[in-house]
Amino acid sequence: MAITGFEIRRLTLVGSGVPNAEVQFRGGLNVVSGPSDTGKTFIVQCIDYMLGGKDIPKLIPEASRYETVRLVLSGPKEDDEVVLERSIRGGDFKLVSSAETVRNLSAKHTAGDKNSLSQYLLSLSGFSGKKVRKNKQGVTREVSFRDLARLVLIDEETIISSTSPILSGQYTGATAESAVFRLLLTGVDDSSLISHEDPKVAKGKQAGKIEMLELLLNQTEGRMADLQLEGDAQAWQGQLAQIETLFEKAQTELAVEQQNAAQLEGMRRTELNSLRKLESRLGVLREFQRRFELLEQQYRSDLRRLESIAEAGARLTQMNEERCPMCGAEAEHQEHEHQKGEATPEDVAQSCLAEAAKIKSLISDLHLTRAENDREIGRLNDLCSQAKESVQAVARQLTEMLKPRVEVALLRLRESQADRDAYRRALELHGRVKELQGLMANLGQKSSGKGTELESARVRSDEAEAFSQEVESLLRAWHFPGLSRVTFSEGDQDIVISGRARSSHGKGVRAIAHAAFNLALLKYCLKDERPHPGFVLIDSPLVVYREPDTDEDGFSHDVKDAFYRSIAETFHASQVIIFENEDPPSNLNSYANIIRFTGASHGRQGFIPKDV
What we know:
By secondary structure, the chain is α/β, with parallel strands linked by helices. It has 2 domains: about 250 residues, Rossmann fold (3-Layer(aba) Sandwich), CATH 3.40.50; about 190 residues, Helix Hairpins (Orthogonal Bundle). A 6-stranded antiparallel sheet has the order 2-1-4-5-6-7, covered by helices on one side. A 5-stranded parallel sheet has the order 10-14-15-3-16, with helices on both faces. Helix 5 crosses helix 7. The longest helix has about 100 residues. It is elongated.
């Protein structure tokens, strides 16, 4: 088992009411053989799907009743197995570890997200946190497991492609794809790379900056012209110094006049306070007079009532006693006990006259008080008139004397301030013009200079020399005909076999050379103990080799035997899974895990049980 990476142990389809469809693998060489329509390509698609592929497996009729795909993986430790589950129709993953702990993993790779399948597989492969550059400017991104999948999962269409095994054929991804291959070769990522801006983008931005500076410069010069000041900046500086002197003088004059006005205002405020006090006292006394008048009216009302009572008492004493109006009894027969202790009418009349005398005395005193109040009111009226005249005199002095002087001083101040602000604005705009011109000059110098360029992301031939030797070693072990030397083309990012580019060969040679490329990379990483997913899966590396293109010569049939025998011997410490139409050599059973699909009634018909 490799130091890093993992192995595929088992692929299972699970459905309701149908037997599981399952295929098991082990370490070393695994060969799944059989004719067409036995499910080999479907297995490859399911494995790719369970390792984060975005494409749902193309459902074959036999698989229509299955719902879930399970993939069992084993880590560096043999007993460290995990089960990945995913709906066959898409969605995220469920991971069940050997300790029966369950966690959900996102199907989409997100930088820094530890709960994604990509990050989990990267951690098993030893690529956690690794970064690769993604463009010529050196901008980097995190490695995704799908970057590695291209180098370990090779389907039947990719195996015969003339495109380099490193590249997907997409122009925008070529830089990152070469960087991933370099990462596998060297074990060093691009996290320390410092990016620089794309020259075309930088040039466009610079042109935009210059255009904006020109616009600002024209606007600033226009504002300077609107001020309509004669002379240049030096003359404006002299004028500004004179105007600032006038401005300070006007400020001093205004301050003196404002101080004089403040003194008069203080006097006016003092007189107003005195007037307010007099008016307040006058109001109190007038209120007293009103209340004294009401009190006198009350006294006179009391006098009239007492006089009426006294007169009624006198009249009662003059009346004779008669029969009782109730019972008709004469006076001598009447009982007068209820009249005991009661005052006689004569006594009541005398008391009323005495009380009336007291009230008359109070009225006399009230007249004296009201007369004194009237005198005080008259005195306060005279004082109020004097205070009002004093306030009016101070106000006239403020209005007629100081106000014109303050207005003149304020006008001089405003005129000098307007002139001062105009020259200050002109000098400020002049400084901005100089600043904008300097910025434009600096941008012009930068545009004429050449920026530093990063080294190309393509893998150099010298970097891939040891890897090329591993490819050559494999091809030689496979009895590849006419083999002399294998090198690496920096331009094609592909191997060159005996001086001829891989892409220039026919499909059969391209396929077997592609397989050699991917297997040599696994061998190279294992040998140097570099991070690698730890397995390679290849679909149909030999099927077209038996049927050469018109531009290919025929090859000896011992290549196939040598191919399987070499892989079984070389990769016993890792895992290689090969899918082929034809069966491998019969004497390979003791060295490899051979799974044969017959497509007939005898043996195992195919991946999906025939009774489904």
